[in-house]
Amino acid sequence: MDALTIMKNEIKLGFRNPWAYSFLGIFTLLSLSMLIIQSGPVSDLNQYTKTTGTLMNLILYLLPLMTLLLGALSITSEKEDGRWHLLSTYPLSSFSFIIGKYAGMFIVLTAIISFGFGLSGLIGSFLGQGLSLETLLWIFVFSMMLILLFLGLAVWIGAASKNRWQALTISVGVWFLLVLAWPILLIAVLSLFPYASIQPTLEILVFFNPAELVRIFVTLYLGGGHIFGPAYYEWIEWFHQPFGVLFLVAVSMLWVLGSVGLTIWKWERKRRHV
Question: Residue 30: CB partners within 8 Å, gap ≥ 6?
């Protein structure tokens, strides 16, 4: 038994999960609603607009929560339902198990957002009120990056939790901290620093929040850097350089490899104490 077998099984379980279809319906409904209520032809939406920003914010609120819940509960259920005790009798390494689970959940979540964007794009184009292809692709990239980064956190939460309720509580707490409470926490923390050190501290803290990092990156590439004010002018220039994209990819890889690596370590440690 290898990671590919675990991935295929996870895909089957994912598409049988009623939570997945609930999130699919909510995600599709919100995306479609935003495209329908905006006014103006497609050509007016080639860059960052209020509609684009609102759609990104809705995705930022929903997608990380969806990813954390589905990912963490999928890992924790393996322990609670006893499937892991059965799998541990096979020559299956913790590395193959976690990688297979991660890949399977990523495919399921990608299918959900692809269906949502595809249906919304088709209906929006039919009504003559859809987003431009370039903007839609950037928002899709935004969603994919959120899934990649938060799924790494999700599998770690699942491995560290003792049961589903604990996984649910921690997932909601992490989502609340990184998505909802982050601006307030930033203001509280930065108020303790001297004025001259506020901007460099802010730039460093951004890399500790995958949601904020991805939001800033995609917004800048959609031409919405002005909403961040003059404090982010250097970011606008820096991110549009070739090495800016490479650096973001490197940071994202560190997030994924770090979180998945910690998950494998945690899972292997628990396996030895079973």
Answer: 58, 62
For the stretch 114-149, pLDDT in tens is 887 777 777 766 766 556 667 778 888 888 999 999
Locate 272 and state its tokens.
Answer: 């030895």
For 74, the token pair is 């999928």
Q: Please tell me whether residue 30 adopts helix, strand or coil conformation.
A: helix
Cβ–Cβ under 8 Å, residues 62 and 23: yes
Q: What is the Cα–Cα distance from 156 to 25, expressed in whole angstroms?
A: 27
Which residues have CB under 8 Å from 105's CB, separation 6+? 10, 14, 70, 71, 74, 151, 154, 155
The phi and psi torsions of 150 (rounded to 5 degrees) equal -75, -25
pLDDT tens-digit series, residues 191-230: 888 877 877 787 788 888 888 888 888 887 777 666 666 5
Q: Is 61 exposed, middle or buried (0-12, 13-18, 19+ CB in 10 A)?
A: middle
Any idea where the domains of the chain sit in the sequence?
3-272
pTM metric for this prediction: 0.86
